[in-house]
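Reviewers asked in the last cycle whether our approach scales beyond single polypeptides. To address this, we selected a multi-component target totalling 205 residues and predicted its structure end to end. The input consisted of the following lines:
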Amino acid sequence: MFKKIKRKIVSNIVFMRLSFLVQRLKRKNQSEDIYHIDKIEKILAVKKLFNINILIETGTYLGQTVNYVKNHFSHIFSIELSELLAEEAKRKFKKHKNVEIIKGDSGLALSEILKKVQAKKIFWLDTHYSSGIAAVSDNFGNTPILKELEIIFDNWTNGNIILIDDARLFNGKNDYPTIEFLSDYILKKNLELRFFIDKDIIHII
Ligand SMILES: C[S@@+](CC[C@H](N)C(=O)[O-])C[C@H]1O[C@@H](n2cnc3c(N)ncnc32)[C@H](O)[C@@H]1O
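The resulting structure, written as structure tokens, was:
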């Protein structure tokens, strides 16, 4: 009971501090496109609050997220299944030595990265089929999210933060687990992690 209340209080404090940081960063970037700004500012607020220098993104797509945050992290890994999109992103970020684009299925490639990188990191999990040029995995269908989480927890480092985009899609359809399933799954890991949703982003903090 006490543990539950403590978890709730800490969760509320983290949430309030993050909202404050996001609002402040947002005011600085009024001109940027609004879809990305919410997400980017969330990633940057988490980075600042928890002092994390490594970002691992699954699903590069056109590299918009990488582009916005590339100067804020000492190292960024981004995994993309589509050969075309991965090649294009490699070309785009060629000059940025801290950006590594990996062509592969995140449900498989993620474990190779995690074997190499032990420091705490932010995971931005955003792999799913979205439109014409986006890829669909033969191994995991529309979303490899459960496989990604399994790999992350098998290679867990204290201080890791997981952010999962598109919370609204977690409805038990199209290969997505439900939010309840996911929150139970995290609770069972017993790692004192908080689970909450803000602005369509699932936070595991
Ligand atoms: C929503 S987009 C990512 C958007 C990008 N993160 C951003 O913020 O600009 C999803 C991407 O995931 C890719 N994708 C789908 N399944 C994948 C998988 N199993 N492994 C790696 N990438 C995958 C798609 O090709 C698509 O480019």
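The mean pLDDT is 89. We regard this as preliminary and will revisit it once experimental data from Aim 1 are available.
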